[in-house]
């Protein structure tokens, strides 16, 4: 199939998906599956392989996020039911004020994002976002949008994450220098993202009923404003305890990452720390501690704890299924050859190296959804082109590809669905906010990299 036809099908599939979700009000899960099927048929994927591709795309993504999302939702449910998130929010807001609190949380998200995968870190901080939104009586988007933006920035730009680390290996960039320059550039990119998100938050966006219920602003059956449910007889846990329960899984994940690189492979201690530092195990440990410290120790019965954990599953299930369908759509686009067609088209233009790395990665990100795949594919295509460059130039080419993977997060990206669903945004509003924010941050990172290239 010709390159132009593949690109036309890709554009048409995204437009059809938006029409189905925004105009026809088809549920995103169903719309993503329908469009995935149509793309697979029209691009010539063998009929016997179509469902295998769709299921592998969905299964591959669900295998990595299902446990994390469910455990994170349960942990958030316990923190929410205890009143702890509001306690922590009141402490911060009272000390800093709302404006400074948003900035402080964005800075916190930047730091947390360095060792923790984007989706994992965002799910862990969701209880905080809801708690602060309740106390400040504002939309969770006010806190969540800048936090998500900076977490994704460090996820794509720093070699503590797979995309940047593998890209450095493919292009021969020095890992330490990449980390240092990546942080230096990510800081102004994060600041820009904070100010863009602040500007976006001047507008009020309609929230989904699920998020309104989480914030206790609507009754599930009627949508009528309601008073928050009264707390149980015991006192609300302190801000320090809640902060500790949120920090513990992040600290364990960081320890696991350090142990994997610093301790000898034959070490038993290394194996133990790496195990407890995997995101699922770290969250399971935090959930066990929360169950005891927020529940059992404070007089909650087994039935109440089971109910709180059970109530967390339906909300997380909606996020999981839509994100999984997004993974299926992305997999179909990859198998159809759309990403390769885009790469070949851009490579044929013979752009200068820095903009070529950025545009290749950005186009691949837009075509198939995964930032990591976009960064790795771009790096693989540029391995010959970077021959003869010095150490700093190799780092800058790598970062250009990384910031291309930051932009254009949209409906074929599982991260788009995680952010928009948890923040209560519609697809249209998600495109106006999250997609625009990630793209502007990616462009800012690229501009800074190109400036550094010119100066060195």
UniProtKB/TrEMBL annotation:
GO molecular-function term, one example from the UniProt record: gluconate transmembrane transporter activity
GO CC terms in record: plasma membrane
Keyword terms of this UniProt record: Membrane, Transmembrane, Transmembrane helix
InterPro entries, alphabetized: Glcn_transporter
Superkingdom: Bacteria
Ligase keyword on record: no
Organism (species): Yersinia intermedia
Protein name: GntP family transporter
TM helices/strands, residue ranges: 34-54, 61-82, 102-129, 141-158, 178-197, 239-260, 272-296, 308-329, 341-364, 395-419, 431-453
